DUF6046 domain-containing protein (Flavobacterium sp. CFS9), 223 residues
Amino acid sequence: MTLDNQDLLFASLMGSRAVNLLQNTNIINNDLASKVLPVIPFVPVKNNPNNVSIKPGHAINAEGNWTVNDGVEEQKQFFPLSFSFTENGQRWLFPYEPMINISSGNNIIKRNVAKQGDKLIGTIKERWNRKDFEITVTGVLIGSIMQGKPEDCFPREQFVKLFEFLKYAKEIHISCHPLELLGINKIVVDDYSFPFTKGENVQAYELKLTSDYSYELLIPEDF
């Protein structure tokens, strides 16, 4: 399957691992489009013809089409993601909807016991509990001006705000529809990276998060 310009842009932002995801997504999108459902774009690419001169050394017109939106409104995102420091505190919405991968499983204690008979196969499972949810969030921050000085085009405000959450030494309250369905309302940050990203006004990120819950470790007893 061939990739169009938008797919190549997304792959350059997210890395080579995104190519397989793009191809699978295109297959799904093509099938959905045949059923009269809209195709959901991953990154905001402006399709309007630009008015930038092709002459070398010509200044960029920041008032024209070399500007992009500061973000996508929450109502226009399919699965908007937001962070907050407290349960009812002010939420910070990720300006562009990221990709979210969720994984988990069970911790099972297995015993190898000598057994007789053809039907007694495998190990004895004594007990198990659920693992934490491991959440990977991959996305981009995009400045409003495509080229220029770093203080003008790099998404500094978004970058600094995101880093405030990443360096926070406590649990973070998270809001996203598929996470809420799994009972995930709080997370802790394990790892994060800001890989090299093509584009003066674009910065990719990858966050490694783990679900967190409130526990009552001391249980009072009535005598």
